[in-house]
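TASK: fixed-backbone design
INPUT:
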């Protein structure tokens, strides 16, 4: 049941992110509209989207005081050197090992990961967020945002 709740939470967060891009609001973290690569083609009637995709997962649903590994997996359909990736922990969660942020030199269609071992101090409902952001130019940013909803027992 807990894993179903996590899956539903991830799905809702992904749908909200896609809805923001489709609505023309772009990536809320990027501060602007999503753009496509200058060489990309967009079919009539479709909205452009960011070439960077992010997935966020956790190794297990931990109990309070138990360690779990959070992984932010980033991919771009174009080379994206200097892509910033961050994992944001809520109050009540702490970093045990690894890193919560980094700069990745993404190669086209090759995934890269940022991993962090975390621990929740008390039972409860938490949200772990991750962002990936690549500044392409003064007027263009590629990025993605994911939220992982976790219920710690």
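OUTPUT:
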């Amino acid at each position: 049941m807990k894993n179903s709740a996590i899956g539903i939470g991830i799905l809702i967060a992904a749908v909200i992110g896609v809805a923001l891009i489709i609505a023309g609001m772009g990536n809320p973290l990027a501060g602007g509209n999503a753009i496509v690569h200058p060489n990309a083609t967009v079919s009539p009637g479709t909205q452009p989207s960011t070439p960077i995709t992010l997935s966020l997962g956790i190794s297990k649903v931990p109990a309070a005081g138990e360690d779990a590994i959070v992984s932010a997996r980033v991919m771009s359909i174009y080379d994206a050197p200097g892509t910033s990736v961050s994992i944001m922990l809520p109050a009540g969660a702490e970093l045990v090992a690894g890193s919560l942020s980094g700069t990745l030199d993404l190669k086209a269609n090759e995934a890269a990961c940022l991993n962090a071992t975390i621990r929740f101090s008390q039972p409860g409902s938490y949200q772990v967020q991750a962002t990936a952001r690549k500044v392409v130019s003064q007027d263009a940013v590629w990025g993605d945002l994911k939220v992982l909803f976790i219920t710690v027992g």
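COMMENT: Helices lie at 2-22.
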